[in-house]
């Protein structure tokens, strides 16, 4: 009897190891994880050079864990276990009031560098420059966080930024309006972005500061394009108990032409790329996701706006179309041209830097473009 | 390579085991030697050369000691030369930079070879045991190489003395199916201790150790978290080593015996890192005269042994302080505390021991700033704050689980079950344990190796 049990043990133990190895080797590798929204490690090069440099060690480890066939189930099992034993933080996310809130770490030196970069940009430009920093949902809903949960104080950071900016930079207060509407659906529950409604309020504050009045909400024809959006926080936290989000569209593309610069040459783009709705990364539906440069020609009367952007801008930009003839979306992470030379060559009238506060604290590319 | 990695679990282990069992008996040792070298060289290939040097030099020493057995003066010189070689190796890689930086000499910045403190101690035990006649010289170079490099205990112990496995090496080992099965279970237990328990609480220590607004309670929480982390990590490693050894047919000595249920510091050290304690007892304390000497010399011996034990754990002041701290406590217990401590209620003995052990772990865990950390534990901080409350509540269930797992209670309950149930339950738990550890390893990048200083 016990001999049989020993055999079973050996077969199971060996079986699991062999399964892990064989399944990884035999099943074709995935390049990209839709659920986690990141590229996966690929098979390391088994060369002597790689071995003697010691790189093979880390690369093999990453490869085996990224390509493990049951990886997604593993992430879920881990987070369920954590929830079961009372953990409140899941891989940098808090689960609070049926919503995932991303922890924000205290800023590093980069933060001061970026403030200096903005000041430098203002000096180099002879047109108005505005800085709009959006607090993340973690700040707006901080009263729902577990008591004492560590996360940086965003309001304190915002006021310190505003004190250190030169007078010629107009810092737009994005917090007040988000706080005012915090009981509405302004941030996704499973994603780190704002919803289209949040973006509407953001656009309202932004336009206000430039002297425009946004149309009231009831003027928009709201279409829900998906009710099954599980965003980046869903992926990184592994928490599966939060209701999926829905994505709404407020503004139709109309006559706007989008010129998309993805690979150094212009292509026709679109305000909404609905093909993303079939994928995991549904938020990229707005403008088709990150790209170095996009130029929107709205056909409307008005000036030319340059938005130095992160992905928060993608859902906000449709609300700005009625007030500008051209909107240039400039991504400092991918498009390395100095801001001032671009502004001069394109006859831009106003520059707005629009970031989520979190990205502003960590972005390392602003200095590159703000010379 | 470390055991708790995907590379080990999904590549190295299945391939090595398969080859080991496919090989005919005469081929197993050469095959194992090669596998050991790959294991060792995986992260740091250039140090394979140290392995070759160790094997050759210690083998030759063993041979010379045996050859000049009847010329004691000469044999002693060979023992000394073997010890000096091993200590020089250890000193160069582990202690040079620390001492150099204290005395303003050039710091070399050579990375520490994995497990050097373990294998130099093991090979020293070989020459000494051969000299003492407690072990036969190993004539077969491959078998000797297997002893020096044996992968299960190569990088984090237990410290296997040559005489512990001499017979197994010489006569050859033929693991039975029962050994493989029991070994697999023990390995899984160790893997769970390391990945599920130690890593989970290690994260708390990681955030607390550098937390600028640490309260007094927070500092104690951190020290307790680290105490659990190092115990489950280290005991987990030892279990994995013993399990792997058993799968290959070797029996390694036990290294931990529920140290946190100890009733005194003396008792604690009989239960904590037992193979290190017995190494120092056998090769340092007793040769110094042990306790058969008088007065001052007796205390001197104890302090020497404990200062060395402390320093063995890492080249920094805090490790020395840590060892001396235990030396003083052990002398105090011997002379004073033991007169009345055993008469106290059990829980007082446990609390006395645990508090002193937790303080020791705080010293151990904070190389550059142990005085600062200790001062926080003893009042140089606000007593309690919101951050502490957050960590206390979100880790409370984890602490309870760890506290239970550190006692023999789960094992006792398990052995209350009828044998048949135990068999099937252990199979079930083994599969669950592996599944859980793989999930944790795949989805979490936090998987530290704590012995890089050893």
Summarize this, please?
With 371 residues, chain A is an alpha/beta fold. Chain A has helices spanning 2-26, 48-52, 55-66, 71-84, 110-124, 137-140, 154-164, 175-180, 196-209, 232-237, 312-320, 339-346, 357-362, 366-369; strands at 32-33, 38-39, 89-90, 93-96, 99-102, 129-134, 169-172, 223-229, 245-249, 257-261, 266-269, 293-297, 303-309, 324-330, 350-356. The model of chain A has no long low-confidence stretch (mean pLDDT 90).
Which keywords apply here?
A: alpha/beta, eight-stranded mixed beta sheet, B: 454 residues, 73% helix, globular
Shape field of chain B: globular
N-to-C span of chain A: 78 Å
Secondary-structure element series of chain B? HHHHHHHHHHHHHHHHHH
Strand content of chain B: under 5%
For the sheet with most strands of chain B, the description reads:
none
The H-and-E topology of chain A, N to C, reads as HEEHHHEEEHEHHEHHEHEEEEEHEHEHH
The level of helicity of chain A is 25-40%
Alpha-beta content class of chain A: alpha/beta
* CA-CA gap between termini of chain B: 15 Å
Strand order of the largest sheet of chain A: 7-6-15-13-14-12-10-11
What percentage of amino acids of chain A are in beta strands?
A: 15-25%
Rg of Cα set of chain B? 23 Å
Please, could you describe this protein's structure?
- The complex is a heterodimer of chains A (about 375) and B (about 450).
- An eight-stranded mixed β-sheet of chain A has the order 7-6-15-13-14-12-10-11. A three-stranded antiparallel β-sheet of chain A has the order 3-4-5.
- Chain A has 14 helices and 15 strands.
- With about 375 residues, chain A is an alpha/beta fold.
- The longest helix of chain A has 25 residues, at about 1-25.
- Chain B is mainly alpha-helical and about 450 residues long.
- Chain B has 18 helices and no strands.
- The chains are: A alpha/beta (about 375), B mainly alpha (about 450).
- The interface between A and B is large, with 49 and 57 residues.
